[in-house]
Amino acid sequence: MGTDEKKVAESVAWRPGGAVKHAEQALMAEKSRVLRPFGLTVPQYAAMYALSLAPGISGAKLARLCSVTPQSMATVIKTLESRGLVERRPSSDHAQVLVTRLSRAGQALLRKADAEAVAVERRLVDAFTPDEIALLRELLERAVVVLTDGGHDDDASF
Amino acid sequence: MGTDEKKVAESVAWRPGGAVKHAEQALMAEKSRVLRPFGLTVPQYAAMYALSLAPGISGAKLARLCSVTPQSMATVIKTLESRGLVERRPSSDHAQVLVTRLSRAGQALLRKADAEAVAVERRLVDAFTPDEIALLRELLERAVVVLTDGGHDDDASF
DNA sequence: AGGCGTACATCAGGGCTTTGATAGTTCGGG
DNA sequence: CCCGAACTATCAAAGCCCTGATGTACGCCT
Predict the structure, then answer these.
(1) How far is B141 from chain A (nearest CA, A)?
(2) Chain A: nearest CA to B12, how far in angstroms?
(3) How far is B54 from B52, CA to CA, in rounded Å?
(4) Are strands B86-90 and B98-102 parallel, antiparallel or unpaired?
(5) Do A143 and B8 touch (CB under 8 A)?
(6) Digit-coded pLDDT (tens) for B92-145
(7) Which candidate in A70, B19, B73, B139 could, as Cys together with B63 as Cys, close a disulfide (CB 3.0–4.6 Å)?
(8) Three-class secondary structure of residue A128 per DSSP
(9) What share of chain A is helix, strand, coil (3-state, %, to 5)?
(10) Closest nucleotide relative to residue A80's CA, C1' based
(11) What count of other Cβ atoms lies within 10 Å of the Cβ of residue B125?
């Protein structure tokens, strides 16, 4: 019973941010679990999913879709490419950009992995009423606005 | 305008998990921002905060409090120790465990950093009514339960 | 006392993520 | 026509985080 672990845990957890973090962790853990058999990480799956909706997109745009930095996406793409799940080739009209698309193997793998990933989200949705889901989304979106827009007043004058 | 970016973004974002992830990202980004002047990352701050509530705790327990693996906590502690913000010494009664506590410099830094970190959470809380906060917490906690408990039915027979 | 289960610390390896900096490309306005 | 702004890709360095695997110390139970 060193140091009243119970009490400390409460002190740490009361913050609303803790709840958000906890939920995100649980979501990531569960998705990782169902994706593991396919040898995919969550970011890898996310990239492939986005790629299935927007074939031939540039790495930078893909990064924006997945809400990560271009550097992060670059590492994800690199490992996917090394496994032959995606293919990159220089664009014909834009000498700079690398056109990225799922390989046949990638499409096949994604189809199977997506079923599992969707099932996780579905299990989540099914545990709530549609109203509750909408409410949750609305509250979270408001939180995002508060956190991003609010605060930093570093001369937003112009 | 390659590939209907707008449309794709919607398809990616509709999943409830996306909202949670987005909120968590915004929270992390904002906390990172206010912590940067102190040279602290969010995990480092979290560890120091927990350490302030439970001085002399073991690394493993600290990891549990912060919801990370012992390995992750070990790396965090190592960098904190290299900056003289925490001190570790072998326990007297348990030859195995390393007792970790904040140094004086660590306490001083935490006091200042904590004010900023709390301000972020406070800004978040102030943007909602108490009822809304409670509701958000309740929904998120239910989501956690669904994600962790539900699902894996690998023979819970006994 | 000896053995087993629990807990702690740590090494090794693979990935993700961020900030900062470099460099080539494209396009439009001066 | 040239230059700068915007976009793209990439290198480098620092951290964080997880899985898996050791090795060791403790404590209880037989």
Answers:
(1) 7
(2) 7
(3) 6
(4) antiparallel
(5) no
(6) 788 788 999 999 999 999 999 999 999 999 999 999 999 999 999 999 999 999
(7) B73
(8) coil
(9) 65, 5, 25
(10) C15
(11) 17
Element (H, E) at A102: strand A98-102
Per-residue confidence (pLDDT) for residue A94, from 0 to 100: 83
- Which bases of chain D come closer than 7 Å to a protein CB? 7-13, 15-20, 23-27
pTM: 0.87
Structure-token pair, residue B143: 């989501």
Half-sphere exposure of A125 (CA within 13 A, CB side): 15
For chain B, how far is it from start to end, CA to CA, in angstroms?
A: 57
Tell me the CA distances in angstroms from A129 to A20, A132, A139, B81, B139, one per residue in order: 20, 5, 15, 48, 11
Q: CA angle B21-B2-A76, nearest 5°?
A: 45
Non-local CB neighbours of B127 within 8 Å, separated by 6+ positions: A142, A143, A146, A150
- Interface contact B140-A9, CB threshold 8 A: no
Considering only CA atoms, which of B142, B150, B133, B151 is closest in space to residue B16?
A: B142
